[in-house]
What does this fold into?
Amino acid sequence: MTKQRLLFLGPPGAGKGTQAQQLAARQGLLHLSTGDLLRAEVAAGTPLGQEAQAVMARGELVSDGLVLAIVRSRLEQQAASLNRGEPGPRGWLLDGFPRNLAQAEALEALLNELNQPIELVVLMELDDGVLMQRLLSRGRDDDNTAVIQHRLEVYRQQTAPLIAHYRQQNLLEPVAAEGSVDEVAARIESLLQ
Ligand code: B4P
It folds into this structure.
């Protein structure tokens, strides 16, 4: 059966959001991007968004507690709706979460409670030079050279240790993230069987 509990890992600008959105639509999965959810809170001016805004602008990680609360409420809602027999996506795709070991451990505890183990971790790999070009041409508020360099540093220090963590669990599949969006999508799709 096609894998339907997926996690996308990789440096900023590797294309996690781009691929996750398309794959979730094609496979009928719930797409949870912590970056998008945080940006929505910022845009709505909620207390959570006000707390996250400055942290994101500096290219640092928002506090684990905030991000976990967002993910927990979405996954619990989906599980409850499935338990009630309601229609809706059965699987999920976590994009940009977890981003450090503490988040990964909290996620594992939550998924144990829900009895929904991760089936596949896709690691999107791309050279720093190409990442930088993609992000500079995207031009979001947090996409300028100094902030991107800092986000890459945060990725290496805090997120990259997750690679060994998921490799040990035999869940990790690296994917070359260069080439066109369709080429990368085909590489990812071939891992779902
Ligand atoms: P995110 O929103 O997760 O964004 P990202 O890592 O910068 O980008 P992504 O890899 O998704 O790349 P995209 O598809 O957009 O994080 C932003 C911030 O939110 C973080 O710095 C942090 O502050 C906060 N945050 C998020 N999650 C958190 C967590 N769990 N804990 C704490 N803080 C958290 O692609 C980039 C560009 O490349 C786009 O313009 C796209 O069009 C282009 N592109 C994609 N694929 C391409 C291809 N194949 N060819 C050419 N261009 C391509």
In short: Residues 12-18, 34-35, 38, 55-56, 59, 61-62, 67, 96-97, 99, 103, 134-135, 138, 151, 180-181, 184 surround BIS(adenosine)-5'-tetraphosphate (CB under 6 Å). The chain has one domain: 5-189.
